[in-house]
Amino acid sequence: PPFQNAELGKRAPRWIRDNEVTMCMKCKEPFNALTRRRHHCRACGHVVCWKCSDYKAHLEYDGNKLNKVCKDCYHVIIGCTDSEEKKKKGILEIESAEVSGNSVICSFLQYMEKSKPWQKAWCVIPKQEALVLYMYGAPQDVKALATIPLLGYAVDDTPRSADLPHSFKLTQSKSVHSFAADNEELKQKWLKVIHLAVKGETPECENE
Question: Which residues form the B box-type domain (predicted)?
Answer without folding.
Answer: 19-69
